Amino acid sequence: MFSVVRLLRLGRTLGAALLILCAGSAHAAVIQIKIENLAFAPALVSAQVGDTIEWTNADFVAHTATARDGTFDIMLPPNATGTVVLKTAGTIDYYCRVHPNMTAQITVSK
Ligand SMILES: [Cu+2]
Questions:
Q1: Which of the pair, 101 or 2, is modelled with greater confidence?
Q2: What distance in Å separates the CA atoms of residue 2 and residue 77, rounded to the nearest whole number?
Q3: Taking CA atoms, which of 5, 10, 23, 103 is between 20 and 30 Å from 43?
Q4: Half-sphere exposure of residue 109, counting CA atoms within 13 Å on the CB side?
Q5: Which residues pair with 82 in a beta bridge?
Q6: Which of the 8 DSSP states describes residue 7?
Q7: CB under 8 Å to 48, separation ≥6 — which residues?
Q8: Is the peptide bond preceding residue 42 cis, with omega within 30 degrees of 0?
Q9: Helices (H) and strands (E) in the chain, counts
Q10: What's the pLDDT tens digit per position in 38-71?
Q11: How far is the CA of 90 from the centre of ligand 1 (A)?
């Protein structure tokens, strides 16, 4: 026969196991950013570690997505698509090396 104390302990153990399962089951997302008319759209995005950012250049000129901290530097010829997987939490400021006034930001949370 289970005592009440034993049942409570079992419940707590199951609860902890469920929490771990839920934490591990977050699905990575693909976040799309379009480059059009010399601008990143949206310029501000929020993401999570493990998510993928996918840029598509809809302009007739080449652009880059270049992180100021050196995390990534992606060439984007006209009609090209480029991706990066976000590995660490933090704020990433990036810009286009061809048009330095094109700036944008990704906020990555855990
Ligand atoms: Cu550009």
A1: 101
A2: 68
A3: 23
A4: 4
A5: 55
A6: H
A7: 26, 28, 29, 86, 108, 109, 110
A8: yes
A9: 1, 9
A10: 999 999 999 999 999 999 999 999 999 999 999 9
A11: 24
DSSP 8-state class, residue 26: P
Q: CATH assignment of 30-109? A: 2.60.40.420
> Residue 11 Cα, ligand 1 centroid: separation in angstroms?
56
Cβ proximity of 72 and 11 under 8 Å: no
d(CA 106, CA 57): 17
- CA distance linking residue 61 with residue 75, whole number of Å: 11
Ion ligand 1 contact residues with beta carbon within 5 A: 63, 96, 98-99, 102
What is the residue whose two structure tokens read 């704020």?
91
Residue 3: predicted pLDDT: 59
- DSSP 3-state of 9: helix
